[in-house]
Design a protein that fits this description.
The chain has about 100 residues and is mostly helical. It has helices at about 25, 40-45, 55-75, 80-100; strands at about 5, 10-15. Strands 1-2 form a two-stranded antiparallel sheet. The longest helix has 20 residues, at about 55-75. The model has no long low-confidence stretch (mean pLDDT about 80).
């Protein structure tokens, strides 16, 4: 079911909209470099139940770490992918420490 917003509001509506493709059909339109196995990274993200203290940034940082690690797993070593992982991990740690997220244990 496709969700749209009423003009000028934050309230969703589904009235008078054409049906949206289902999850499986939409997923098939994605980049082929993610379609190397039975489980794609997007399936993992969709099934995850993020920890309650995480905000959008934490989720983005962690899913990007997974994305670039998955690329390394299936394509082999690419220095820029490793550097992106390091960057997102450093940002994640800095944000968690600055905002006292989680515990150190």
């Amino acid at each position: 079911m496709r969700i749209n917003f009423l003009p000028g509001t934050i309230f969703p509506t589904t009235q008078n909209l054409p049906p949206m493709d289902c999850w499986t059909e939409l997923k098939q339109q994605g980049s082929p470099h993610y379609k190397t196995g039975k489980i794609e990274p997007i399936d993992l993200y969709r099934s995850a139940k993020p920890w309650i203290e995480y905000n959008a940034f934490h989720i983005k940082a962690l899913t990007d770490v997974i994305k670039y690690a998955y690329r390394l797993l299936v394509r082999g070593y690419v220095k820029s992918d490793v550097e992106k992982i390091q960057h997102y991990v450093a940002l994640y740690i800095a944000d968690c420490e600055e905002n006292s997220v989680g515990f150190d244990g």
